[in-house]
Amino acid sequence: MRMSYYPGCSMESIAVSYAKSLLAAAEALGLRLEEIPDWNCCGASIASGVAGGFVQQVLVARNLALAEEMKQDVLVACSSCYLNLATANLRLQEDSVYAGRVNKALAVGGLHYSGSVRVKRAIDVMLGEIGPGRIEGRVQVPLKGLKVAGYVGCQTMRAHPGDFDQAESPKALDRLIRALGAENVNFARQTTCCGSSHVVPASEVVTGQVKEILASAVEAGADIIVTLCPLCQLNLETHQEKVNEKFGTGYEIPVLFFTQLMAYAFGLPPNTWGFEHMLVSPKMPAPASA
Amino acid sequence: MEMAAEVSGSKNEGFVNDLASRLGALPYGKFSTRCLQCGLCATSCPTCEVMDYSPQRLFAVIKEGRENDVLGANTMWMCTSCYSCKVICPYGIAIADMMHDLKYLAIRTGKCESAQAQFYLSFWREVYLRGRSFETGVLFGFYRRRGRTGLKEALGRRRLGFKMLSRKRISLIPPRSVKDPEALQRIITKAKIMQNRGEV
């Protein structure tokens, strides 16, 4: 099976461990991900506020036009990139007048998008297309005894509520955690916002949000937090020190991407786990033979 | 499914004032006249406490036509785009998306002194020039724009910065840009012209 892959800017920097482990875990499951050549930034939650909503959707549509030439569905891992690509795609597929206007702008660069691409989240592809059975079957190092808080965050399931998982009480990430042999813990702050891009202009907002999430996960007995969004991972990991300073707590909990758990549990080479990029190193269950 | 119907079905409904019509010309601004004042957005909002007006209250101030108060408020800038409000709104108002339109209107009106607006401008500059974002570039641009405060903030974060550098999570060298940034800029310029003419 092949799919096109839209990495997005974070996957090449702050979330490089997500990219490494995603590509390797997908390959191990027989899914080859082919990067969209010459993709551009989706504009995150920011471009529309500066350049306007239409400009941002044109920016996003350029990626869809490039993806269309590959004649494959597109997998997106970052939640903000997914939100933007899926939202623009929906509008372009359903509103032909609007699509005509967007294409008028794209034509300046010799591009056209006719609406044939399907955009999917990485977690949807893993569970919906590949399936928990095949994931379970691929596990070589079951994560027995590892208690995992599957932190879903905000945008991932709220972008288009109900199209894959429930927005209020998502189940997919927990299902995947169990397929890897780990135990998912139930914690109240599973979908509480991490504070997102306030990490730069108003980091105290992030400190407050992260404290609630960490407290909830740790009180539920989690050894580790796993997420599916680059910014959630960044905030939950890098703000632990700030939370500890401000609230007198002693949090030091690893925060990984779900694909890192997959690469490890599949028994893939350590250079695919991306653990060397983490600020808090995870203690993983050893393989049975070791 | 949802969006096309939402947007086309909401045109020019409700009250009229200058602010509402300026907002109405933007992709999600049309929603500004449809609020029921039930307050669910405010109760679901993670940053409501630090906002000048809660999302619910902001709808009321828009109705009162108090343009300066609306565009000068920090409400849209404190929004994290978490989409709780959009999921919970019984009237299906895309509140978080409307916040983006309000930011755009605020910046167009010259209200860009907040840290968030400076961050947005710095981010957009990277994307416009290179077609891709580059964290270190965005951060340096942001701190430079903030002057003395920025320098203080940058120094306060240097330890984390070095850690991120040593773990190869950020870099001082920009990643590759799109192959032809000028071609992308021509597309953006065309889209901007269409947007300004209201051809969207």
Automatic annotation (TrEMBL), chain A:
Keyword RNA-binding: no
GO molecular function: oxidoreductase activity
Protein keywords: Oxidoreductase
Domain Cysteine-rich: 4-85, 148-236
PANTHER family on file: COB--COM HETERODISULFIDE REDUCTASE SUBUNIT B 1 (PTHR42947)
Name this polypeptide is given: CoB--CoM heterodisulfide reductase subunit B 1
TrEMBL record, chain B:
Molecular-function GO terms, alphabetical: 4 iron, 4 sulfur cluster binding; metal ion binding; oxidoreductase activity
Domain 4Fe-4S ferredoxin-type: 25-56
A Pfam family per the record: Fer4_8
Cross-referenced InterPro entries: 4Fe4S_Fe-S-bd (IPR017896), 4Fe4S_Fe_S_CS (IPR017900), HdrC_iron-sulfur_subunit (IPR051460), Helical_ferredxn (IPR009051)
Cellular component aspect of the GO annotation: plasma membrane
Keywords: 4Fe-4S, Iron, Iron-sulfur, Metal-binding, Oxidoreductase
SUPFAM superfamilies: alpha-helical ferredoxin (SSF46548)
PANTHER family for the chain: IRON-SULFUR-BINDING OXIDOREDUCTASE FADF-RELATED, IRON-SULFUR-BINDING OXIDOREDUCTASE FADF-RELATED-RELATED
Protein name in UniProt: 4Fe-4S ferredoxin-type, iron-sulphur binding domain protein
